[in-house]
Amino acid sequence: GAGVSQSPRYKVAKRGQDVALRCDPISGHVSLFWYQQALGQGPEFLTYFQNEAQLDKSGLPSDRFFAERPEGSVSTLKIQRTQQEDSAVYLCASSPTNLFGNTIYFGEGSWLTVV
Amino acid sequence: SQKIEQNSEALNIQEGKTATLTCNYTNYSPAYLQWYRQDPGRGPVFLLLIRENEKEKRKERLKVTFDTTLKQSLFHITASQPADSATYLCALDISFSSNTGKLIFGQGTTLQVKP
After folding, report:
1. Contact check, Cβ <8 Å, A45/B32
2. In 3-state terms, what secondary structure has residue B94?
3. Measuring CA to CA, which residue among B53, B42, B30, B39 is closest to residue B105?
């Protein structure tokens, strides 16, 4: 497709369950980002990839959060032993280069509810 | 501490009027500032980017100003239409100081344009 694609769009997980969220960036985009957005708040940075290299994971809230992009295209955000405070929208975004001041293209998000 | 603030209350205006949204920040030195539009249940969509050495940027009915002395950006929508109703997010690009492409978002301002 033409845009950033995320799946699943909606996920309900029981507390303690592991979840995996997938992101298909725009083809050829070098940079990939994951953001977390709580209700009524702006997106908060989680992690950044340049191709397959994870250059910044400073926003990951705990060691239960893990992200990978093994071949420099598709990325997966994994959350282990989910807790209620993990309930949020997880947004993936990509941009065509690693240059600063780029336009960033967001996906529609994966809505996670932990019950 | 580092902070980004947008009008927390919703902005309600009449169709045809100019909407002005404010973004203030402290303790950042962004090289760029970006504005995004977000509709309910959707990901943010890029609107405009302004560089630190630019005072003003225009795109169709949109105008952004960036005052690095006041640490403030103003976002204007002229001749507003009901279709402009959405949440508008400002985002600081601190790539130069963070060495990644991450954006720091404000919490967003919801604009409602009434016919």
Report:
1. no
2. coil
3. B30
How many CB atoms neighbour CB A107 within 10 A?
23
At residue B13, the 3 state secondary structure works out as strand
Q: How far is CA A15 from the centre of its chain?
A: 20
Give CA–CA dist B7/B1, Å, rounded. Answer: 19
DSSP 8-state class, residue B4: E
What tens digit of pLDDT does each residue of A23-76 get?
999 999 999 999 999 999 999 999 999 999 999 999 999 999 999 999 999 999
Nearest alpha-carbon partner for A24 in A70, A69, A75: A75
Tell which residue, B24, B94, B31, has the closest CA to residue A45: B94
- Is A104 within 8 Å of chain B by CB? yes
Of A4, A101, A105, the CB nearest to B31: A101
